Amino acid sequence: MPEMERLHYGVAYYDEYMPYDRLDKDIEMMKAAGITVVRIAESTWSTHEPQNGVFDFSSVDRVLDAMYKAGISVMVGTPTYAIPPWMVKEHPDVLAVTQNGPGKYGARQIMDITNPVYLFYAERIIRKLIGRVCDHPAVIGYQIDNETKHYGTAGTNVQLRFVKAMHEKFGGDLNELNRRFGLTYWSNRIEAWEDFPSVVGTINGSLGAEFARFQRQLVTDFLTWQAGLVNEYKKPGQFVTHNFDFEWRGHSYGVQRDVNHHQAAKCLDIAGVDIYHPSQSELTGAEISFGGDMARSLRASNYLVLETQAQAFPHWTPYPGQLRLLAFSHLASGASMVAYWHWHSIHNSFETYWKGLLSHDLQPNPVYHEAKTIGADFARLNESLHGLRKTHRVAMLVSNEALSAIDWFPLPGGKNYNDVVRRLYDSLYKLNVGCDFIFPETEANVLTDYDLIVVPALYSAPDRLLEKLNDYVEKGGHIVYTFKSGFTNGDVQVRTSAQPGIIAKACGMSYQLFVEPKDVRIAGDPFGVGSEAGAVETWMELLTPVTAEVWASYEHPEWKGHAAVTHNHFGKGKATYIGFLPTEALLKGVFERVLREAGLWGQDQKLAFPLVVKSGVNRAGCRVRYFLNYSGEPVEFEYGYRDGRELLSGADVRHGQMLNLEKWGFAIVEDRESRACEVAESADGAAD
């Protein structure tokens, strides 16, 4: 893994979008704000190749030379996610055909990423651009494409590739395919490969989920192909990254359904991520934490925030102090770079009102002035904050396959997989429980690094994955499952045993019936969170313990004899199963009990949201703790850790003293008692 040489503070910059020539002025303002890196070129293919085979990189050259002269580094993006009009005019079939029909030119990300004509032109522009810039001393790295997904591509070319993939997967055995996907239903059985229908209209969840998996693989293949091209030109010290995004709900929300991030990230030197979030009075920091934990887990290393908001929408324009809080929140999750999309607000076209760091007048403003303090602190505190290494004892297992399967069989009320994931993740976040993400393919020996694994709604999973999780518990691990886990195999075929299938062995319970809850609560207050938090939402499995202890039961005139939450000792470990969607408050109570049993309830849990605590070890071997106040009110708390130094102010901090954080404020305390810190400090003193 390449190690970023320093903390970077950056912006996306498009000289081509500017209403008048102001490159020198922009650089002057960037330098004043402490901007150390800009990202260019990934959005402007039609500028660089205005006609087929006619290339003009003068705008790239101009920016590279000016940034180098100013001491600002540059990341160059491959401009392949927004295609020029001449390509569509000459080759209309490069547009993706989706379940909604043929594509229409205008928006970005509308092409078939498997189309050979598109790939020909994409390779040509990549080679022309990267070959031109790779030797430039300003260039430190490359971003391949942009928020890549499969864009729903499902045309003839893609269908043919899918049939070939199925032929290979099933060894040409159509009977096996029909059996595993249940295609006898409604006469969907296929008797000849040449009769394989388009899956765009399929009603079969197994076939549909398999096609979704295939489409995600197209993205992995596409990014791997681009990375391979760029690697031919990449120089020592340069890196390749990509900006992954998430399910979008007006902001970054959950696991991306159209990309397998874990697989696609394998071709990268360092993972990158785009994180957008609610702001103003709705700011919680949960999206920054979720996206950061996901990005860090992809390569088990620090990551780059390639896009986040400065102003953006009117309802996102940050309150005073929030921009600083947000920037340092990214660092607290392990980011080595924080970059805004984008530097300037553009004056026309689709994203006119997605404002940048500068408003439309392109002059200094309160957000810009706050950014200047961030850039100065990044530079001043680089040695203490750069390269924060984070290790966690809790992990959450997420699965694209489970997500796709639940998409085919949505939960009541339209809730989906990510609703469950975020309900669990946010509860842990607000308890100040640090969390990594693991994946179905994560090796068994890696699972043992964690004392607790949380598994939301693992609806579709192959036998080997569930057996691996059973083995983890038997050997001493703790695990928390939610409803819908273990229900179907990897082909989305419901298991014929009593549910929850294979994991029933570790969970010590089973169920046959499930219902949609109406006016159901948890009996009493078993987790001490108040009876008002005991509402049963969305889904309700009627659990029958075998060897498990009942932690909670349903309160209902007909269902009151059934367990709602069970806890079982299995081998050296323990498995907790939650048979419904709990409120966040109830989940926090369940997690507190589980964490205490697992020996994971500590000093951080004495502090709770809106005070968020995150920590890691810096390159000097010192523990660094971030205390982040996601509240419009001041917060006071007792510092219960070893003596240290608050990095922003330089003040000593003693165990047991009271610390005060302003609204939307934060403190960063470096533990100065570790031997590594003492050695590093002595060396710094000798150098001075």
Give your account of this protein's structure.
- The structure is a single chain.
- With 688 residues, the protein is an alpha/beta fold.
- It folds into four domains: 8-150 and 223-385, TIM Barrel; 157-207, no CATH class; 394-601, Rossmann fold; 606-687, Golgi alpha-mannosidase II (Immunoglobulin-like, Sandwich).
- It is 32% helix and 20% strand.
- The protein is built from 20 helices and 33 strands.
- The strands form eight sheets. It has a nine-stranded parallel sheet, with helices on one face.
- Helix 1 (23-33) packs parallel to helix 3 (58-70), helix 11 packs parallel to helix 12 and helix 15 packs across helix 19.
- It starts with 7 loop residues before the first strand and ends with a helix.
Enumerate how many helices there are, as a single number.
20
CATH architecture heading of the largest domain: Alpha-Beta Barrel
Radius of gyration: 26 Å
Q: Work out the number of β strands.
A: 33
Number of self-contained structural domains: 4
CATH superfamily of the largest domain: Glycosidases
Q: How much strand content do the residues show? A: 15-25%
Which features characterize this protein?
4 domains, eight-stranded mixed sheet, 688 residues, 32% helix, TIM Barrel
SSE map:
Layout: E1 8-12, H1 23-33, E2 37-40, H2 45-48, H3 58-70, E3 73-77, H4 85-90, E4 97-98, E5 101-102, H5 116-133, E6 139-143, H6 156-169, H7 174-181, H8 205-231, E7 239-241, E8 243-244, E9 247-248, E10 252-254, H9 261-264, E11 272-275, H10 286-299, E12 303-308, H11 322-332, E13 335-340, H12 366-380, H13 382-385, E14 394-397, H14 400-408, H15 417-430, E15 436-438, H16 444-447, E16 452-455, H17 463-474, E17 478-482, H18 504-507, E18 509-510, E19 514-515, E20 521-522, E21 536-541, E22 544-545, E23 549-555, E24 563-570, E25 573-578, E26 580-582, H19 584-597, E27 611-617, E28 623-629, E29 635-638, E30 644-646, E31 652-653, E32 658-661, E33 666-671, H20 675-687
Parallel strand pairs: 1-2, 1-13, 2-3, 3-6, 6-7, 8-11, 11-12, 12-13, 14-15, 14-16, 16-17, 17-25
Antiparallel strand pairs: 4-5, 9-10, 18-22, 19-21, 20-23, 21-26, 23-24, 24-25, 27-28, 28-33, 29-32, 30-31, 30-33
Helix pairs in contact: 1-3, 8-14, 11-12, 15-19
